[in-house]
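Here is the promised in-class demo. Please do not try to memorize the tokens; focus on the logic of going from shape to residues.
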């Protein structure tokens, strides 16, 4: 709107300050599409120039800076016309304003940083300009991050650093390797994470947002630095530099400590903590940190010894009620995986299994079909009120947690055994189909047959495979080859693997290798239903077999040696009609 532009250009150093404030407020209150491209660009340039030269002889005084920067931030939210903010001179001006105003007007200093953050978010190419030697924005914000003491400051600065490190660059090498005041960014981030974590637990403003941005910034460093520091490692999937090891303890503290959220149990910043953790490989030097435990005064059980039979009800309301009640408030039993490390420890294995139980129970309640329309619609409805992107899918949300569990299984034999016996306990009741169970195992097996959740399906298969020592024979014997045939086929295993050398079943009852349920065959191999047949019923069944073999003969299909033997036996024993 040219009227607002004219009103601003008419201002001078002699204009009453309330008039200046009124014009600036009119820019702030204007609707997003009030200004066309040329008008918006003109206002952005004027505001930047006046802020750069603010004094008693300028259109803007120092005390007008906060409102003027808020007006500039409002204009910069629309990409069309706000391109002047991407110029190196503009970014330098905003950095200088943030620094010069910090002591006298921290609100104005914060608005200058928010202008930078919005610009980097809207314009990818502005990030390259920002971290260039001409501007030096990366080092500038890293220095401010070290001094930041509030969640709001940490939120804005971490957002800028996250955007500035979104792509590989020399800045990442500088941040990790060069010391400022005797510390690298890897020394600074853990102290800030611990500071914000206490604020998150106290439910303070901006705390969760600040934690999310800090974790996203950490993820970028973990993702890009190993490849940048050692170009020869780019082909290695699990390469990790020891320079990043200092991040792991603080990331684990966040992962263990963040409280549950409602309605969705898996939301930022917890999701960002998981993303960061899955980028850190399991190395011998880090295993002690991964498996370190902390005492937890509240006992929890991972699985009760008795598993209920599947129920037909499947509603989201039931899952929500269970989640509100805390799902299962049980104590750790002597047979549970948690008991393997002492009385009650809050370690990463317990935390991960606890989260998986809650997440799967919430998103796939009872023994519901994961591909059902009800499940997808329920997820969309809950997602709409969660503040997460509406484009988020269940695959994107849950798969990283399964990947983390898979990596935990790869740590050592004890962790693998704990996860395996939590999913498939030795006392598992196999008297009914495993894919009809309403527990975690049943949900996993149903997901293995999913058509809609392809990534989740693959992640579940990899987790089960890792928990079973990456041995297809053990996996098939525990859950039944029929349930994992598709997964194993994709891994190049085209037929049922032989039984494992050691029987993984604790029960003396025979387990069907295809279904994973108790076999109906007696120990001598004869079907009980055949034993119970009368002679007349046996004759009828023998007639059916004779007809089938007769059709085979006429079709020209050559019978196998075993088929010939059975055929001759049936012929010799068949009673004439």
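The designed amino acids, position by position:
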């Amino acid at each position: 709107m040219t009227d607002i532009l004219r009103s601003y250009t008419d201002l001078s150093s002699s204009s009453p300050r309330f008039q200046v404030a009124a014009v600036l407020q009119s820019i702030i209150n204007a609707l997003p599409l009030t200004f066309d491209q040329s008008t918006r660009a003109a206002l952005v340039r004027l505001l930047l120039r006046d802020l750069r030269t603010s004094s008693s002889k300028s259109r803007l005084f120092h005390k007008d800076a906060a409102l003027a920067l808020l007006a500039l931030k409002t204009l910069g939210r629309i990409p069309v016309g706000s391109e002047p903010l991407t110029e190196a001179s503009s970014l330098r001006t905003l950095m200088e304003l943030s620094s010069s105003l910090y002591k006298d007007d921290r609100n104005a200093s914060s608005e200058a940083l928010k202008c930078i953050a919005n610009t980097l978010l809207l314009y990818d190419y502005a990030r390259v300009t920002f971290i260039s030697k001409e501007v030096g924005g990366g080092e500038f914000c890293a220095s401010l991050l070290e001094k930041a003491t509030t969640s709001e400051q940490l939120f804005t600065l971490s957002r800028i650093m996250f955007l500035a490190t979104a792509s590989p660059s020399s800045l990442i090498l500088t941040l990790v390797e060069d010391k400022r005041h005797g510390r690298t960014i890897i020394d600074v981030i853990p102290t800030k994470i611990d500071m914000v974590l206490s604020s998150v637990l106290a439910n303070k403003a901006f705390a969760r947002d600040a934690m999310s941005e800090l974790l996203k910034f950490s993820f970028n460093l973990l993702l890009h630095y190993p490849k940048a520091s050692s170009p020869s490692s780019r082909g290695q999937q699990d390469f990790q530099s020891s320079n990043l090891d200092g991040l792991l303890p603080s990331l684990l503290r966040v992962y263990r400590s963040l409280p549950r959220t409602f309605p969705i149990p898996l939301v930022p910043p917890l999701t960002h903590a998981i993303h960061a953790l899955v980028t850190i490989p399991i190395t011998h030097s880090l295993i002690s940190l991964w498996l370190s435990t902390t005492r937890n005064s509240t006992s929890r059980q991972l699985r009760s010894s008795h598993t209920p039979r599947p129920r037909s009800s499947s509603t989201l309301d039931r899952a929500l009620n269970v989640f509100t009640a805390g799902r299962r408030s049980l104590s750790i039993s002597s047979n549970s995986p948690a008991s393997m490390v002492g009385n009650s420890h809050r370690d990463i294995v317990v935390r991960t299994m606890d989260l998986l139980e809650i997440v799967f129970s919430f998103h796939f309640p009872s023994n519901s079909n994961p591909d059902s329309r009800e499940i997808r619609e329920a997820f969309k409805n809950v997602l709409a009120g969660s503040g997460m992107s509406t484009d988020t899918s269940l695959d994107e949300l849950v798969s990283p947690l399964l990947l983390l569990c898979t990596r935990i299984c790869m740590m050592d034999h004890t962790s693998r055994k704990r996860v395996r016996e939590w999913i498939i306990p030795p006392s598992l009741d196999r008297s009914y189909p495993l894919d009809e169970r309403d527990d975690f195992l049943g949900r996993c097996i149903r997901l293995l047959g999913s058509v809609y959740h392809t990534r989740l399906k693959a992640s579940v298969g990899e987790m089960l495979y890792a928990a079973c020592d990456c041995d297809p024979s053990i996996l098939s014997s525990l859950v039944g080859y029929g349930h994992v045939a598709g997964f194993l086929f994709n891994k190049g295993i085209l037929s049922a693997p032989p039984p494992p050398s050691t029987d993984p079943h604790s029960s003396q009852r025979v387990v069907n290798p295809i279904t994973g349920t108790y076999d109906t065959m007696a120990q001598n191999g004869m079907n009980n239903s055949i034993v119970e047949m009368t002679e007349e019923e046996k004759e009828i069944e023998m007639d059916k077999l004779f007809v089938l073999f007769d059709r085979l003969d006429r079709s020209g299909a050559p019978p196998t040696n075993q088929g010939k033997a059975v055929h001759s036996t049936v012929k010799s024993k068949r009673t004439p009609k």
